[in-house]
Batch of 2 targets.
Target 1
Amino acid sequence: DNPIFIGLQNYIDLFKLNQPVNITLNEAFFNTLLIFMTAVFMIHLIFDLKKVKTPRQRYLIISMSILGILSLLTINSIPYLNVISALVLVVVYTILLSLHFLDQMSSKIFLRIILFIGLWITFYSLGVPEIIRFLTLAKEQSLFIKAIWNTIYYVLLSTPITILFALLIALLLNRKLYGKTIFRTVYFIPFVTSVVAISLVWQWIFNDNGLLNYILTQIGFSKIPWLKDQNFTIPTVAIISIWKMVGYYAIIFLAGLQNIDKTYYEAAEVDGATPFQKFQFITLPLLSPTTFFIIIVAMIGAFKVFDEIFILYVGMPGPYNNSGMTMVYYVFDMFYVQQRMGRASAAAYVLFGIILLFTILQMRSSRSRIYYES
């Protein structure tokens, strides 16, 4: 009757923690960034120091490594030292990349290896980064943060596996295979089948006395509580989604494969190319527009996961502890169950922003790798 404008209060409430955690977001983010940048400079110090031509460049790499190490040793004793040190390392590394200084020291492939090793050292050798520890603690104090955590976990788990299996199936169906029309139909049937029917069948398969546990016991393994253990909630839903969507994306991949001109492969055979070389230098580049489309569509579809969870767990977000709470399920719960329209609308806009961010990153990172034959 008397509406009051509350500004961003609904968005603030989404991320409000029930109980404070023992680390701030500022410390978590910049500590992780500092650890990663220090690892990258240390790797350059080990691998590239001999290639440096001038003493000034050598002293720059050494000084940045020492700065990072000293900052790590005093990371919790001096206020804002982690922020200053992390930003300095990022700025210096960005300048070195822009001046092509690091490209001269290392090839582009080797530079990627260095960054990968830096990530490995950050996440394993130096322990779990602070930002991961912060999110792990925060998701137990905020239902919406847990929904974001579960959704991103599901997207990262299901999307790459679905696309990989779809590409492999498309490559097999594109070969001269007897009865391949039947196989195409078999792989496509799960996509057109009702989600309710699929989820009910998989509910029986994942049951304690279901088909999957029966097979595991027959080959000597113990039963797995697929539907009762919160650790298996997201992987269980991912298995269903992969099985359902892989045929659809395989058909799209197959259409892209059949649009590739056969003369490219014939010319490659004349030049003595191996099957792997033809796949690497012909199939993948010419299939890049189709791959880009599938990645975008699969990622957006994965962010909207809801039906499988709702049916598999009989209207509940997982067996317990909201282990299957996703962002769409959160919007559904706020809107239809709790009738909190403002909170549901705010969550929907946050979901839109996350999908938009991931889509823009995909488009920017893939722009130079997409080849349009026309």
Target 2
Amino acid sequence: MLQRLVIERLGHKGEGVARTEEGLVFAAFALPGETVLAEVEGERARVVDILEPSPDRIEAFCPHYGVCGGCAVQTLAAPAYAQWKRSLAETALRNAGLDWPVQPLIDAHGAGRRRVTFHARFEQSVARVGFMRARSHDLVEIDACPLLEPRLAGAPAAARALAQALAGRGKPLDLAVTAATGGLDIDIRGAGELEERETLALLELAETLDLARLANHGRLVTLRLPPGVMIGKTQVLPPPGAFLQATAEGEAAIARLVAQGVGEKAKRVADLFCGVGAFALRLAAQAQVTAIDSDVAAVEALDRAARTARGLRPIIAQARDLFRRPLDPQELSRFDAVVFDPPRAGALAQAEALAASAVRRIVAVSCDPQSFARDAAVLSKGGYAAKFITPIDQFRHSPHLELVALFERASEATPRRRLLSR
């Protein structure tokens, strides 16, 4: 049904939100202040025409925008866009009953994203590679993405060639590509166990495409050149498909804030959910670091890098499931500062243990405002207050947002918190 909608605001997924007699309606690619004509079905709307455009509307720079689901907000002018991104954190905190100030957004796009996952689907045994449409299982083929850093320029073609080599399986594939120091580092997912002829075909392609490393579900197919990433001054060789911050500038910006939060006086630091050591390998320049993560391969990569690095204090790297076995208050008492950077779901159990601890400084890093706000509320109830909360945008034009926050016990921090009445 065609309906005239007045867009009030952007939602947390980047969709325009309109209020109707039937309730809220969400219109992708519409902007606040706009009046649009849209096909409405339930709470979803597809914009047919923009009757009154927003004064903040600008031209999209990607020809796939509006079709590809990778970018939610590309036509909003920079100042309004930055305020929307910042508001994602403000709204999440407010909904959790916290009135803490949020600093201005830091743009950490830098040279672009250094890792990307392509989807591959097959039509009549021909590989199609790209991204999914928004809220759809339909594939949008792409040959280039302007958000990727230059080292990934050949990634779509490489992903297509590798997928084509496995076309006989007819299985949907994901190809995780990272720009490493030795070239493209690719992990194929969804193929299952390879046959010998498929492995030989992939080996030949790895040579032709000059790949640094090729893996299948994390299992090595071939290693031609060291697939390294630089963390500060230390080179790390991550396991296939390892988690890295989306942009090099994003990692550096987060690490600077983490170091600021930890402070120069901290001599013993815990880095929880450490991954391959984005923070541990930097913090070890001034402190003894205990780095913990459930990913055994990532912890081993960190340990190898730490043993060969120069000018660093000892790093104790441990594999431990912090969701099932969070560090308890007694274990935490050994540290002057704790950094925790959990996955998107947050770290409720570890936050509860931290809230009951005597740790002076806690630095939280999060990629999800909602789980961050939940964990922050736990720390607040334990007597901690936020010294700063800084949003970082390394997923430009998407609703994804990074946050870094420093928490101190309220008696030691500048009083800046009050619980909102519900």
